[in-house]
Predict the structure.
Amino acid sequence: MQTATVKIQKLDPRAVVPTYGSANAAGADLYAVTDGDVTIAPGETKMIHTGLAMELPTGYVGLIYARSGLASKKGLAPANKVGVVDSDYRGEFLVALHNHSSVPQTITHGERIAQLVITPYLTAQFQVADTLSDTQRGDGGFGSTGTK
């Protein structure tokens, strides 16, 4: 496990610094900053504020994932499935929460709405080629490696 210092700017004094739920948690919880309850209708997406901006280290990306409890109990998850925050972004971290359930769901101020995983990434230098190396799998995709 690696650790790094990440500078955080509170854009709203009510913002909560992300927290890890356990010593080995990969994702840090992000908290909603709202001016009252926010109701998200079935099939609707709403931008939820965190009140935070961050300075992620160069060579790292912030990935915003669903919280399993919020997704399984309320049907709420990021609309884009995984939010990607580049290290040069300095704006507010917003979470586009989508209601996948059949009933309206409510987010309250201070509620945990997503989790942030900070991870290193590679930048590819794409090279056009006439052929690619052979593998046992070849061009099989979309379930082609399953036995049934």
